[in-house]
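Everyone, study these two lines:
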Amino acid sequence: MAEHLTDEDIDTALAALEGWRRDGDALVKDVPITPDSYGWLSEAVHNEGATLGRQAEIERTGEGIRFRLSTHEAGGVTERDVELAAHIDQVLDGGARDRG
């Protein structure tokens, strides 16, 4: 089982993850999107998570989408959550959308 990161490790990771924040025992990012983007974006993030063996909680919000990452069995944020956050950022930047 993966161990959760220390507060210092999480702060270091957040410094490299633009727009992500800590919310309790999770990393969270809110992204404004157009209504027609939700489907492909949530699917692309799901595919990235499947590749890494880690899934994001994805929630539709009033103005966009929220990603929440935490490893419940570890009791907090792990390296795998940080890695998925970076992959989600790549998706948001268009790096994973054209993979088909």
Q: What stands out?
A: The chain has a mean pLDDT of 91. The chain is about 40% helix and 20% strand. The radius of gyration is 13 Å.
